[in-house]
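Team,

Forwarding the record for the chain on the shared tracking sheet. I've put the sequence and predicted structure together so nobody has to dig through attachments.
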Amino acid sequence: MAWILLISAGLLEVVWSFAMKQSDGFTRLWPAAVTLVAMIASVGLLALSMRSLPLGTAYTIWTGIGAVGAFGVGIAVLGEPATPARLAAAALIVSGLVLMKLASPQ
């Protein structure tokens, strides 16, 4: 259950980062509101997952999902460049996440 909470928290991190971009510096009400609600929910789910997962594992996976997810949304939705170096960097992050999961005691 902790892993489901953690993955959900990571996905909400992607939601809030995209909504923050859409809020245009918190000048647009609804994207700003989505940002705040998703942030609170994301951190709340992270905290719940940390009840049974190690701090280092939970935080690394949470930030990794957020980073790679925001990177993917940037490319797919916002038209950001998918250069070979950027794709390689994302692949390295995913590799680190997989290794962290495999090395985790739970």
